[in-house]
Amino acid sequence: MFAARRTIVGSKTWTCCRCRLLSTATERRPSLKLPIFPARTRFAPSPTGYLHLGSLRTALFNYLTAKATGGQFILRVEDTDKKRTVEDAESMLYKDLKWAGLQWDEGPDIGGLYGPYKQSERTSLYQSHAKKLLDSGHAYRCFCSPERLNNLAKERSDLGLPTDYDRMCTNISMAEADERSTKMESHVVRLKMPDVAPVYNDLVYGPIGQRRKTEKSQLLRAGQWSSYEDPVLIKSDGLPTYHLANVVDDHHMRITHVIRAVEWMPSTPKHMVLYKAFDWEPPTFAHVGLLLDDSRQKLSKRGLASDIRGFERDGFFPEALLNFVALFGWSHRLGDDFINLQELVKNFDLKFTKGNTIASPLKLFHLQGRYAEKYIKEGGKEYESMIDRLHTVVAKHLAECPENQVWTDNKLRDRIAAILRLDAANYTTPNEFFARLSPLFCSQPRKEWESHPEDHVLKDNMDTIVNSFKEVSCQRWSEANLKDVLSQMTSALEAKWDGNGDVAYDLDPTAGKRRMSIVKSFLRWALFGGRSGPTLMVMMNVLGRDLSLQRIEDAAAQLDTIVPETVRTSAETLGM
Question: Structure pTM?
Answer without folding.
Answer: 0.85
